[in-house]
């Protein structure tokens, strides 16, 4: 965007007329009009700083330069380290590395810690933890495939989940595929890995059949007698299949799959996190909202959202899950031409889990879209400026 148009855009956001803006700068209205139309250029840095000060932004934002926080670049370095850790194959050859293998109990605790870090949306910390954890589970699996199998599947799962958040699609697919391969032969582990596969392949209609196969393989013969763990895995896979169907525009399949998942969710109840799925009635309701957004049914999604956040089960969901849902809610409000409420839930998401907004590219895009609306409140404008997306 040319600097003149950026000046005009920010001036309107600040609800200033050309005359009031000119008065604050000590310039004429004609000077402002020519700058905004691109007839007059802003070449002197001192003038640019003055304009930026009146608009309450920094000069870099006004110039359209990359003003992303330093931690965003650091996160990219961390992803490179994860890529390097995924590029080793000691377990494929079954040979020891010559280093001490982490005891199974300690390794299980480290994997649980990684999942907890993810569910609290502490993504920069998890990026730092994963390279060493992946190396440790590789060693454990190479040393004793039977003992190290669960740890390696879970480590790949949490890695795939994080990489989806960071929009590292191909790398996330590699982690999910590794989890599926390591889980082969164990229906429960395979179902666990398939949950993340569904997240990775959300845009692939073909993945739905894989998820349904895994769901019905882990489902108990009599749903009424199934364990909460089995029902949670089966229901989570049905939810993922439904979201894939929503992305493909198949609303009938969405309804059928989510209705089936809802029946299982009633038996599980809210407030549980079996196999790191957070599956329950509230989670299924949030999936209905996401599906409605994908299908372009914004008004329906908004009504369901406003009811869902009043549920008792809402506060029991992981922080990451709640913040991610608020971003979907913002998309729903945008579909109903309600930028004020879209901004409100985005600011709420930033308060709930800052990393979900600040490190997730999809969330940053929604923030930018809302902030560009003429009627967007100042709160979202400031957040967008802080993120470097405005």
TrEMBL record:
InterPro entries: Cro/C1-type_HTH (IPR001387), Lambda_DNA-bd_dom_sf (IPR010982). This is Helix-turn-helix transcriptional regulator. SUPFAM superfamilies: lambda repressor-like DNA-binding domains. It comes from the Bacteria. It comes from Micromonospora orduensis. Residues 7-62 form the HTH cro/C1-type domain. GO terms for molecular function: DNA binding.
């Amino acid at each position: 965007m040319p600097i003149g148009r950026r000046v005009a855009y920010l001036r309107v956001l600040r609800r200033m007329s050309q005359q009031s803006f000119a008065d604050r700068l000590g310039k004429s209205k004609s000077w402002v009009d020519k700058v905004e139309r691109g007839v007059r250029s802003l070449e002197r840095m001192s003038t640019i700083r003055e304009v930026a000060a009146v608009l309450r932004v920094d000069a870099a934002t006004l110039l359209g330069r990359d003003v992303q926080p330093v931690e965003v670049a650091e996160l990219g370095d961390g992803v490179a380290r994860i890529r390097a850790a995924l590029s080793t194959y000691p377990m494929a050859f079954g040979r020891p590395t010559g280093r001490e293998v982490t005891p199974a109990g300690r390794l299980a605790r480290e994997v649980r810690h990684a999942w907890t870090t993810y569910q609290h949306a502490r993504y920069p910390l998890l990026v730092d933890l994963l390279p060493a954890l992946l190396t440790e589970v590789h060693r454990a699996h190479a040393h004793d495939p039977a003992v190290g199998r669960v740890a390696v599947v879970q480590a790949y799962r949490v890695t795939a989940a994080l990489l989806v958040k960071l929009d590292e699609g191909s790398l996330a697919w590699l982690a999910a595929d590794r989890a599926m391969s390591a889980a082969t032969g164990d229906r429960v582990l395979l179902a666990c890995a398939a949950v993340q596969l569904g997240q990775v392949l959300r845009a692939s209609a073909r993945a739905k059949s894989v998820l349904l196969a895994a769901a019905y393989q882990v489902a108990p013969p009599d749903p009424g007698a199934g364990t909460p763990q089995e029902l949670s895995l089966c229901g989570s896979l049905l939810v993922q299949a439904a979201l894939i169907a929503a992305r493909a525009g198949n609303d009938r399949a969405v309804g059928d799959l989510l209705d089936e998942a809802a029946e299982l969710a009633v038996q599980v109840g809210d407030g549980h996190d079996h196999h790191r799925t957070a599956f329950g009635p509230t989670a299924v309701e949030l999936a209905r909202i996401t599906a409605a957004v994908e299908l372009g049914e914004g008004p329906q999604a908004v009504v369901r959202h406003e009811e869902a956040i009043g549920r008792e089960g809402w506060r029991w969901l992981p922080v990451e899950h709640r913040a991610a849902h608020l971003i979907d809610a913002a998309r729903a409000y945008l579909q109903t031409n309600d930028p004020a409420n879209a901004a409100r839930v985005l600011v709420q998401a930033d308060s709930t889990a800052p990393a979900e907004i600040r490190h997730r590219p999809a969330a940053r895009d929604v923030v930018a879209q809302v902030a560009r609306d003429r009627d967007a409140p100042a709160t979202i404008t400031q957040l967008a400026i802080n993120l470097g997306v405005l």
